[in-house]
Design a protein that fits this description.
With 264 residues, the chain is α+β, with helices and mostly antiparallel strands. The chain has a single domain (3-263), classed as Fumarylacetoacetase-like, C-terminal domain (Fumarylacetoacetate hydrolase, domain 2), CATH 3.90.850.10. The protein has six helices and 14 strands. The protein has helices at 3-22, 38-54, 69-75, 126-132, 154-159, 209-221, and strands spanning 59-65, 81-86, 90-92, 95-97, 106-115, 133-143, 164-169, 173-174, 185-190, 193-199, 231-236, 241-242, 248-252, 259-263. The strands form two sheets. Strands 1, 2, 3, 5, 6, 7, 8, 11 and 12 form a nine-stranded mixed β-sheet that branches. A hairpin with a 2-residue loop joins β9 and β10 (193-199). α1 packs across α2. It is globular and about 55 Å long.
Length: 264
């Protein structure tokens, strides 16, 4: 990459981090004259993560986004994206979030995994993905955008770390091979009222398939794939919901412990 292009990537990454910290949104990147390719977007994401790590952040996994038809229709895109999870983003079930610390937050209910062994690309099998998983759990992902509105492109989202802000994790339990996670029904309740639901098959037909997509994408851009210990979110099984102040959000499923968050 030419030095001028590298400096542009770093400058845009710094702008997005500044918008997040100040909670003052910035204009979408694809609306600007220079345009933005998906490759550029992932470079911006990587530059921003590198800046966070340099400041003491620790990478703990990945998220796969827009894996369901509901989310793709909501975002106006036709393919998944991915972002990086940092330890500071991950909170245990029951945690309280200060709504004012976020900008335009929305919530998503997801099936998530903790890997017990590496999963390498470029073309792992579904059986290899299942064998790599040590534990499974429900998660509430809080997405947020550092742009002026949610009217953004896939490239904008990718550059903004796939819009990931927080992840609230339920109790992690050993994966039971007898479970059909594709048929697992997740129900989202807000203040005790069910408002959304979706099955595991909503994400690429099977919640293990986002692991395949992610391992292949990582292999295409680096010399490694997913690693033992990584947390991986498989994507929302429903269209995202706005997160309001002074509310409690809970996600339940037949075989997995519930997960909840509340806002102040």
């Amino acid at each position: 990459m030419k030095e001028q292009e590298h400096q542009r990537i770093v400058r845009v990454a710094a702008t997005l981090l500044a918008a997040e910290r100040s909670r003052v949104p910035t204009a979408s990147l694809t609306a600007q004259p220079c345009g933005l390719t998906l490759e550029d977007a992932y470079r911006i994401q990587a530059a921003a993560i590198a800046m966070r790590v340099a400041d003491g952040a620790r990478v703990v996994g990945h998220k796969v986004g827009v894996t369901s038809q509901a989310m793709q229709e909501q975002m106006g895109v036709t393919e998944p994206d991915s972002g990086v999870l940092l330890a500071e983003m991950v909170l245990p079930s029951g945690s309280a979030l200060v709504r004012g610390e976020l900008m335009q937050p929305r919530v998503e209910a997801e099936i998530a995994f903790r890997l017990g062994q590496d999963l390498q690309g470029p073309d792992p099998t579904l059986e290899e993905a299942k064998a790599a998983v040590a534990e499974v759990f429900l998660a509430i992902e809080v997405i947020d955008t550092r742009f002026t509105s949610w009217r953004i492109s896939l490239a904008d989202s990718i550059a903004d770390n796939a819009s990931c802000a927080r992840v609230v994790t339920g109790t992690m339990v050993p994966l039971d091979p007898a479970w059909d996670l594709a048929a697992e029904q997740l129900v989202v309740s807000v203040d005790g009222r069910a408002v959304a639901a979706g099955e595991g098959r909503a994400v690429l037909g099977d919640p293990f398939r986002p692991l395949l997509w992610l391992a292949s994408r990582l292999a295409a851009v680096s010399h490694y794939g997913l690693r033992a210990g990584d947390l991986v979110l498989a994507g929302a099984v429903h269209a995202s919901l706005p997160l309001e102040q002074n509310t409690t959000v809970q996600v339940t499923a037949p075989h997995l412990p519930p997960v909840a968050l509340r806002t102040t």
